[in-house]
Amino acid sequence: MNSRSSLIGGLTVAVLAVALIISGYGAAIAIGGAGGKVVSTITTTTTVTNSSSNSPYVITLVIATDSIFNVTAADQPAYFVLGPNGLESSAKINLPAHQLIKLVIVNYDDGNANLTSPADNAVSGTTDGSIFVASNDNINSSQGASAINVKGGQTLTSVSTDQIAHTFTVPSLNLNIPVPLSSTVVAYFTVDKAGTYQWFCETLCGDAAMSTAGWMTGSLVAS
Ligand SMILES: [Cu+2]
Fold this sequence. Notes:
The chain is mainly beta. The chain contains 1 helix and 16 strands. The protein binds copper (II) ion. Copper (II) ion (CU) binds near residues 77, 166, 201 and 203.
């Protein structure tokens, strides 16, 4: 098990200190020196579990509605992979094959979108055929918790179509995860065969988003 934390703190004084602690390797490095004004502060903590048949491999995807990696269209929703240093492109999502995956989707989009096929409101391909909606009050919801009908703390096998913002769907794995508005979803699944698969969002959430790798589609590489 590897546990990796990074913390970058910025001060306006002439000291910049960066501490990188990789606890899984038992190593700690601290660098101090003169520096200029640091204009941003980034704090991320992720835990990635690998190489153990007993523990799930954890991956977190974030849905946000800003264009970061491809600015050919304005303000359409996109999936991102939460990496050790922040959000990364979802154009290629890497996972281990033959190992239980714990997929966490943090959705900051509070807009309902129609499904390309109504049947895509049903969960498929996950362990036990269900998803867990851990939370439905992510911070930038403009609707507020009282306007959202899918309550947190529920295990669901389907989501009402008027409460779906996006899906994470891999047709060739029969995997379909409907994602409610402004929610955090947890799903478990296993990719039994190594290979490259295409993932899609099956809601009509934007022509550019749906057709652009790294937004609402991309490849999933299981190895
Ligand atoms: Cu979508």
